[in-house]
Write a structure and sequence with these properties.
heterodimer, A: mainly alpha, Cytochrome C Oxidase, Chain A, two-stranded antiparallel sheet, 4 strands, 1% strand, B: alpha+beta, Immunoglobulin-like, five-stranded mixed β-sheet
């Protein structure tokens, strides 16, 4: 058990902060690492955005730092652009948002919210982080390998991914990262099922715990097919098998030496079988965070707790049946598309229900507009734009035109960036007092909030217009195509917005580290919340709770008539 | 530059209008949903803001005991009882049902019929233009079947820089065939049947003005059709990442009158080399 050694001997620095088995330390390790990876992925995008706004002009300041084969005379090459694109997507999804949403917040908050002393398998938890970090570093190191980093997009479609350089390391690190996620997913499931405190029935778990639980099921079931698919692609590259290669390929005038007989669409099916559930992995935990913050700051129970939980379960189940809506024009059977069209529209029903519950939760409340609440509130309309723009993409007919245009990029960035990442940042402001016993500065938080929200709209809004104009994604030089010229100005707007967004992260980074040591000290339960993570000291000691807490009621008993305070903690007997 | 702007480019094929109708209809609905919800959202934020003298009020169903009495009429139906007891929560599903009804209508009356008419059937035409489009890094070869309506066979071992698609020129079906690079000429108001292929990696054949997009997958021959209905010059681009020069993989489409098209085709046939068969197939590589 996790707390066997509790209090028995002093832990060394390494045991305490590096190879720690404490879920809280591992959670913060995940937090810092994944925020750093988000920063790296953002920096790669900053370089790409220069090329997109001003194709063929040298990158200012940094252009001449790159080797001549990547950026001759400071101008980015097509290969380098494709590497940056592939790595931006991979890093953001697999090294940034997923580890932040699950590894960081799940690890830190889930055991506390269910009243557990630690995760069920603390060593496996440590192993999960120490698989993730080397996997991530291996991914980054591919920039230094001969031929450079992967150049085939984060989707890695064969045959391109099999003939392009850089892909072997990409596949190897994907296999490592998937292993890390699987270790985490099993741990979360066992913890949620077995380690709940007395009285903490499933229907008394906060929405955030349910979100993590459904997410872990998705990770556990969706990742193995991609792991297998990646191994097959690795074999196609390294051992010249032909799982994904048809016969008679002629590459740049030369016959390809593989035996053939494979099918490129097989990869797309396997990839999207993971990558669509993955979208909900990116979205559900942030939605859980938003629900926590909204319940706390409206001072009333969530509207429709059960509706929200059932919606998340429904989304989890349905997310395995919608994958081929990414493939309407891939060349798969046209009648198959009708099936995926219908399932896609079905999955929008629980998604709309979740959003409706969040909005209705505001009704009758006494809304406190503190910094975490602003992030949670901004999530609602911005995520809604992401969700609504999914409609014309999910509909077969309109997808013919919009598929693979900037409309798609705008759509999923509204979902993941101004949706998920905004919510995750809100989570940092909300749980920071728990992590460090101090509060982040409100003024800097406001600058960070308004700056980020406005500049995000400045980046992703123009993408929707570019997409309607027919601008395709992944173009190294958009001005090479005539129909892109009228919308090229939007690229400039998006680029400058992205640079401003980078500037607005400086107050956040400063605020985070400064508040860690110099922030205003906070009491144990600064937000006057009801859930269990606020019923232990901040930061919680090893083992979390002095004695195992008993849970007496549901998670959001705010403003109960006839009580002195407007919050009734789950652990208060009376 | 009237063809292109900030929104959809000019519509130049028979089904472009149907696709545009869907795009505008959905955007109108999206805007309506967003504005209504947005107004409601702001109203809630203002009305229920924390201020002295204002307290949060729980909803009825928050404190409904599990043993709430149900009307006698449904006392025999457990499911109806469950719905009745949770009616406060279930109210939130009403907007959802409205949106779902709209989506079902879209699917039944728009998406499935239009999709089938574009992707699963071909308009009944006699004498269509038959072409084969072969994609490769980084260009498009457009292979016309010619007046006989038959595409000459292709053989991989005949592939050569002067014969990029490996057309068997000795075969009788190839006699009136023409192969163009990155250029497509089509007669207006006539259906074109296209087989889409790729030699190397996945590309995507995209003509924005026709609202035509289809991935070209090596190993598959994917049929599609289009009926251009406006003369003019349009653009073929590649919409699927295909390598370092992906953005340069483009071509032009010229839609012309039937007479202009026939004259152009004859001029191409006249300048076609008598037999461009590589003398030694082994040299092809």
């Amino acid at each position: 058990m996790a707390h066997d050694n509790h209090g028995h001997h002093e832990l060394s620095f390494t045991e305490r902060y590096v190879f720690s088995v404490d879920h809280k330390v591992i959670g913060l390790q995940y937090l810092i690492t994944s925020f750093l990876f988000l920063l790296v992925g953002f920096a790669l995008m900053g370089l790409m955005r220069w090329q997109l706004a001003f194709p063929g002009s040298p990158i200012p300041f940094f252009g001449h730092l790159f080797p001549a084969d990547l950026a001759p005379n400071g101008v980015m090459s097509g290969e380098f652009y494709n590497s940056l694109g592939a790595m931006h997507g991979t890093i953001m999804v697999f090294l940034g948002v997923v580890p932040l949403a699950v590894g960081a917040y799940g690890n830190y908050v889930l055991p506390l919210q269910i009243g557990a002393p630690d995760m069920a398998f603390p060593r496996m938890n440590m192993m999960s982080y120490w698989t993730y970090l080397p996997g991530g570093l291996l991914m980054l190191s591919s920039f230094l390998m001969p031929g450079g980093a992967a150049q085939s997009g984060w989707t890695s479609y064969p045959p391109l991914s099999i003939i392009n350089p850089g892909q072997t390391v990409w596949l190897l690190s994907m296999v490592i990262l998937i292993t890390s996620s699987l270790l985490g997913a099993i741990n979360f499931l066992v913890t949620t099922i077995n380690m709940r405190a007395p009285g903490m029935s499933l229907w008394r778990m906060p929405v955030f715990c349910w979100a993590q639980f459904v997410t872990s099921v998705l990770l556990l079931l969706a990742f193995p097919p991609l792991e297998a698919a990646s191994v097959l692609q690795l074999m196609d590259r390294v051992f010249h098998t032909s799982f994904y290669l048809p016969k008679d390929l002629v590459i740049l005038g030369k016959a390809y030496a593989g035996s053939g007989g494979g099918q490129p669409l097989l990869w797309q099916h396997l990839f999207w079988f993971l990558a669509h559930p993955e979208v909900y992995v990116l979205v559900l935990p942030p939605m859980g965070i938003v629900a926590e913050i909204i319940a706390n700051n409206t001072r009333k129970p969530l509207h429709g707790y059960k509706t929200m939980v059932f919606s998340m379960i429904a989304i989890g189940v349905m997310s395995f049946m919608v994958w081929a809506h990414h493939m309407f024009i891939s060349g798969m059977s046209a009648s198959l598309s009708n099936f995926f069209l219908v399932t896609t529209m079905i999955i929008s029903v629980p998604s709309v229900a979740l959003m409706t519950c969040l909005v209705f939760s505001l009704k009758g409340g006494s809304i406190r507009f503190n910094v975490p609440m602003l992030f949670a509130l901004a999530f609602i309309p911005l995520f809604a734009i992401g969700g609504l723009t999914g409609l014309p993409l999910g509909l077969t007919v309109t997808d013919i035109y919009l598929h693979d245009t900037y409309y798609v990029i705008g759509h999923f960035h509204f979902v993941v960036v101004s949706g998920s990442i905004i919510a995750l940042m809100g989570g940092t402001y909300y749980w920071f007092p728990k992590w460090y016993g101090r509060k982040m500065n409100d003024k800097l938080g406001l600058i960070h909030f308004w700056g980020s929200v406005i500049t995000m709209c400045g980046i992703f809004g123009p993408m929707l217009f570019m997409g309607l104009g027919g601008a395709s994604r992944r173009l190294y030089d958009p001005t090479a195509q005539l129909h892109n010229l009228p919308v090229q100005g939007w690229n400039v707007v998006a680029t400058y917005s992205a640079y401003l967004l980078a500037l607005f992260q400086i107050p956040f980074i400063y605020n985070f580290f400064n508040s860690m040591w110099r922030g205003e000290k906070t009491p144990e339960n600064p937000w006057q919340a009801t859930t269990l993570e606020w019923a232990c000291p901040s930061p919680p000691p090893h083992g979390n709770f002095e004695k195992t807490p008993t849970v007496y009621r549901g998670p959001y008993e705010y403003s109960v008539p006839g009580r002195k305070t407007d919050f009734w903690m789950q652990t208060d007997k009376n | 530059m009237g063809k292109y702007g900030w929104t959809l480019p000019v519509a130049a094929s028979s089904y472009a209008g149907k696709i545009d109708f869907g795009i505008w209809l959905i955007h109108a609905a999206m805007l309506g949903i967003f504005v209504l919800w947005g107004a409601f959202f702001i109203y809630l934020l203002v009305k229920f803001r924390a201020r002295p003298g204002h307290n949060a009020v729980r909803e009825d169903h928050d404190d409904t005991p599990a043993h709430i009495s149900v009307p006698d009429s449904i006392s025999k139906f457990p499911f109806a009882q469950m719905l009745y007891k949770n009616k406060g929560e279930l109210k939130s599903l009403i907007p959802d049902m409205v949106i779902m009804t709209f989506e079902v209508a879209l699917i039944v009356f728009y998406a499935i019929p239009v999709w089938s008419s574009i992707k699963s059937s071909v308009p009944d035409t006699k004498d269509p233009v038959r072409v084969e489009v072969v994609a490769e890094q980084f260009g498009w070869s457009v292979h016309y079947a010619g007046p006989d309506g038959k595409l000459g066979p292709r053989k991989m071992e005949l592939t050569h820089f002067s014969n990029p698609i490996g057309l068997d020129l000795a075969h009788p079906d190839s006699a009136d065939d023409v192969v163009m690079g990155n250029e497509m000429r089509l007669p207006v108001d006539k259906t074109v049947l296209i087989d889409l292929l790729s030699k190397d990696v996945i590309h995507s054949f995209f003509i924005p003005e026709f609202r035509l997009k289809q991935d070209a997958v090596p190993g598959l021959s994917i049929p599609m059709w289009v009926t251009p209905n406006k003369t003019g010059k349009y653009e073929i681009t590649c919409a699927q990442l295909c390598g370092f020069a992906h953005s340069l993989m483009r071509g032009d489409v010229f839609v012309m009158t039937q007479a202009e098209y026939d004259a152009w085709y004859q001029s191409r046939l006249a300048t076609k080399p008598a037999s461009a068969q590589p003398t030694n197939p082994a040299e092809a590589f």
